[in-house]
Amino acid sequence: MSGQLHLGLFIQETGHHIAGWREPSAAANAARDFRHQVELAQLAEAACFDLLFIQDSYAMRGANDIEALQHSARAIHWDPLTALSALAMVTERIGLIGTATTTYNEPYSLARHFASLDHISRGRAGWNLVTSNNEAEALNFSRSEHAVHGDRYARAAEFLDVVKGLWDTWEDDAFVEDQQEGQFFDPRKLHVLDHRGAHFSVKGPLTQARPPQGHPVLVQAGSSDTASSWGRAQRM
């Protein structure tokens, strides 16, 4: 062991306690006033934290019991990629990790989003891959039920392969930007993915330059046996 302590801040608008928003000193409007998130990010960076992390869900948890939900501050939360892009502009060093599901997204879109975040933050982006454990999300995407566990992870594995392939669309030095000769990029350093698989057919190329990190940091925070083994495999 190196003896080096690494610290990460898990940001949740009004804190992790369901009644935290009721503490008199709490920022009860933290899910509507972004200044609180800015303050937390800057405090974490000043304290030498390595990263901050934002979770996500595409459905309101507890929406089947509005009577109970009205007493918590869990009904609304920031979109991670939007929030992290904003935080990138008010921080300099701290890593920025956001959750994005592979079940209710498309690889091309997320490849662009995280490549853009990596450029905006100058190489500080990270992606927490999930397959969604909130079954209510299906109802917000024209589906009657959540996909079964095995199918979600099979789709996620191919999803990640496609995203990584799209991140490799451009070589690091593809953009010559020769204004005098009128050549913006070297076509020999552009690679079209043309992926065809069980779940996706994605031609490419990606309309964003290769991320500064090459591939943004991949994070897998799942707790199931399948999720844990799949996550380890992606890090090897």
**Strand content of the residues, in percent?**
5-15%
Q: How many DSSP helices?
A: 6
Gyration radius from CA atoms, angstroms: 20 Å
- What structural class do you assign from the helix and strand content? alpha/beta
Provide the succession of SSEs: EHEHHEHEHEEEH
Main-sheet strand order equals 1-2-3-4-7
Helix content: 25-40%
Overall pLDDT score:
92
Question: Could you describe the 3D structure shown?
Answer:
The protein has helices at 35-46, 66-69, 80-88, 107-120, 149-167, 225-235, and strands spanning 8-11, 51-54, 95-101, 125-130, 195-196, 201-202, 217-219. By secondary structure, the protein is an alpha/beta fold. It has one domain (8-235): Luciferase-like domain (TIM Barrel, Alpha-Beta Barrel). The strands form 2 sheets. A 5-stranded parallel sheet has the order 1-2-3-4-7. A two-stranded antiparallel sheet has the order 5-6. Helix 3 (80-88) packs parallel to helix 4 (107-120) and helix 4 crosses helix 5 (149-167). It starts with 7 loop residues before the first strand and ends with a helix.
